[in-house]
Amino acid sequence: QVQLVESGGGRVQPGASLRISCALSHENYAMGWFRQAPGKEREFVAHISWAGFRIDYEDSVKGRFTISIDGARKMVYLQMNSLKPEDTAVYYCAASLIGTSRIPTDYAFWGQGTQVTVSA
Predict the structure, then answer these.
(1) List of residues 6+ apart from 41 with CB closer than 8 A
(2) Ordered alpha helix ranges (H), the chain
(3) What pLDDT is recorded for position 1?
(4) Which tens digits make up the pLDDT trace of 27-58?
(5) Which of 75, 74, 76 is nearest to 66 (CA)?
(6) Are 62 and 2 in contact, with CB atoms under 8 Å apart?
(7) Cα end-to-end span (Å), the chain
(8) How far apart are alpha carbons 67 and 9 in whole angstroms?
(9) d(CA 101, CA 11)
């Protein structure tokens, strides 16, 4: 059973930066970040292959967010810059056995989530 643990969430002001992390118990998975705001469905944010390729972002975060991976440490990161109130959500990392995808159901393993709140 793959375990994922997110950390680094918090409350920041609009325009600020935040880096959230995901620690994995196993390696060699395609990784994704998703988020879920209150009353909304879980949505894709970014994905990356274990080798650090096949990177993709949801349109609203392109140019502001950066996904990265440290395979040796089994860590995945999401650097978030120029944060906006609409980025407020619980952020989840997820691991896929079948490759990178924008579809949540393609990911077999999920972390517990970390809250990111962007508010003045």
Answers:
(1) none
(2) none
(3) 85
(4) 999 999 999 999 999 999 999 999 998 999 99
(5) 76
(6) no
(7) 40
(8) 15
(9) 29
